[in-house]
Known about the structure:
Layout: H1 6-19, H2 22-29, H3 33-42, H4 44-73, H5 76-83
Amino acid sequence: xxxxxxxxxxxxxxxxxxxxxxxxxxxxxxxxxxxxxxxxxxxxxxxxxxxxxxxxxxxxxxxxxxxxxxxxxxxxxxxxxxxx
Length: 84
């Protein structure tokens, strides 16, 4: 059973908030997803923060995708560059 320190927890949470995945958070913290899940079972506060970060991260990923689609759809120059 691996324990993670406070800095690793914060790194994981912030990365999950940006990317929306446990995998990204685990990699950034230098641990595996199983370790994050174990820590979530041990700490209700950590679990709550991770779940909130995941929700926010999923929204961020979706918003970024929509922005990218709009940018591509409404910028004829990008269409021409993409076709060449």
